Amino acid sequence: RDILEGRVYPLLHGYVGVVNRSQRDIETGKTMKSALQAEKEFLLGHPSYSHLALKQGTVFLSRRLNAILEDHIRACMPSISAKVKTMLREAVAEQQQYG
User: Fold this and answer.
1) Please, what is the end-to-end C-alpha distance for the chain in angstroms?
2) pLDDT tens figures, 50-97
3) What does the alpha-carbon distance between residue 19 and residue 58 come to, in Å, rounded to a whole number?
4) How far is 72 from 66, CA to CA, in rounded Å?
5) 13-44 exposure pattern, b = at least 16 Cβ within 10 A, e = fewer
6) Which helix (H) or strand (E) holds 89?
7) Neighbour count for residue 56 (Cβ, 10 Å)
């Protein structure tokens, strides 16, 4: 609990706890849908995690990682776009030199 709340080893983006399928679950054909439902039930029903359940789990982790990736792309795009435009101008200028 203290780890998930970031009190033991604080991380920039925090911790997200997930419950993975076990090898037995995989071998017996447990679907991802039922695994996600079981994960949700575990997190909501466990006294140590129920207060954190809305910010835990595979679905939350997926959304959080997508948001971080989108923020990173948004932050990097202006400089990448500027570099591409510069390279394009240089290539056009070089092409014009050759007639």
Assistant:
1) 69
2) 999 999 999 999 999 999 999 999 999 999 999 999 999 999 999 999
3) 8
4) 10
5) eebbbebebeeeeeeeeeeeeebbeebbebbe
6) helix 58-97
7) 23
